């Protein structure tokens, strides 16, 4: 008798569809962000990228919690990441600040998007091959969600200081290319998901998380600028720590 668990007619608990539904919701958020960007509603477009990031953070964890991981779910998640963190931020940034130098600005956007897809492809290959040679405390290069928020930093600054003169398009284009190159670089960046704390310090972490959420809800643009600056500093610190470790091992 054949195993029903491998039959296409086997029963599937509907709760196991939730991770993929979250992924589809993230895709819808990214596509709608592009729509609002082309309509000139840049703040709402950024809100939707933020929502896509939150949904991206939950779908994989929910799949593991429900033991509902699947190959198609992994592929959907990777495609959603490229849309939400490679395509959507780049197009929104182009419409917002790069149209005045359309050709060079578009080249910067293309470079960023291609770097993002290469970053995701490298991550997928290393995950599927089970390559454990790298320190799990670090990523190799800037992850695509972090790259998306780094590349939108000029927008956050402009929203925080609306009376400030517009940033030069050439500067925005060069910054966009630099963020793209950071994603495909081999510089170490902290993997905060593997961060461990002492149990008696957990209450302070929870309090900090609550304060961070409150700050995002109250002072969104200032908080996003602050988080971007902290992340840039963490990259410099991780690079310094990695070099020290290699010097000791050498």
Provide an overview of this structure.
The structure is a single chain. This protein is an all-alpha fold. It has a single domain (15-249), classed as Up-down Bundle (Four Helix Bundle (Hemerythrin (Met), subunit A)). It is 72% helix and 2% strand. It has helices at 18-38, 42-66, 71-98, 102-129, 144-151, 153-160, 169-184, 202-218, 220-249; strands at 138-140, 188-190. It has a two-stranded antiparallel ribbon with strand order 1-2. It is globular, with a radius of gyration of 20 Å. The N and C termini lie far apart (60 Å). Residues 1-6 have low confidence and may be disordered.
Largest sheet: 2 strands, antiparallel
Q: Overall pLDDT, averaged?
A: 83
Number of helices: 9
Overall outline = globular
Give the strand order of the largest sheet, numbering strands 1, 2, ... along the chain.
1-2
Quaternary structure annotation? single chain
CATH topology (level 3) name: Four Helix Bundle (Hemerythrin (Met), subunit A)
> What is the number of strand segments?
2
CATH superfamily: CDP-alcohol phosphotransferase transmembrane (TM) domain
Rg over C-alpha atoms, rounded to the nearest angstrom: 20 Å
Beta-strand percentage range: under 5%
Unreliable residue runs: 1-6
Gross CATH architecture: Up-down Bundle
Structural class: mainly alpha
Helix content: over 70%
Helix/strand order: HHHHEHHHEHH
């Amino acid at each position: 008798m054949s195993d029903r668990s491998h039959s296409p007619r086997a029963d599937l608990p509907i709760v196991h569809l939730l991770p993929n539904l979250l992924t589809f919701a993230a895709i819808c958020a990214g596509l709608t962000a592009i729509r609002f960007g082309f309509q000139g509603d840049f703040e709402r477009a950024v809100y939707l990228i933020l929502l896509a990031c939150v949904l991206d953070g939950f779908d994989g964890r929910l799949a593991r919690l429900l033991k509902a991981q699947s190959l198609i779910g992994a592929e959907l998640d990777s495609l959603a990441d490229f849309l939400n963190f490679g395509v959507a931020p780049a197009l929104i940034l182009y419409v917002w600040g790069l149209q005045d130098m359309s050709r060079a600005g578009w080249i910067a956007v293309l470079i960023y998007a291609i770097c993002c897809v290469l970053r995701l492809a490298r991550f997928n290959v290393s995950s599927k091959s089970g390559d454990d040679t790298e320190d799990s405390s670090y990523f190799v290069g800037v992850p695509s969600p972090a790259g998306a928020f780094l590349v939108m930093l000029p927008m956050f600054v402009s929203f925080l200081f609306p009376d400030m003169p517009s940033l030069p398009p050439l500067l925005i284009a060069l910054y966009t290319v630099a963020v793209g190159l950071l994603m495909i670089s081999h510089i170490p960046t902290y993997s905060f998901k593997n961060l461990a704390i002492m149990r008696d310090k957990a209450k302070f972490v929870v309090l900090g998380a609550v304060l961070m959420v409150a700050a995002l809800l109250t002072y969104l643009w200032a908080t996003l600028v602050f988080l971007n600056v902290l992340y840039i500093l963490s990259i410099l610190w991780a690079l310094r720590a990695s070099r020290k470790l290699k010097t000791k091992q050498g």
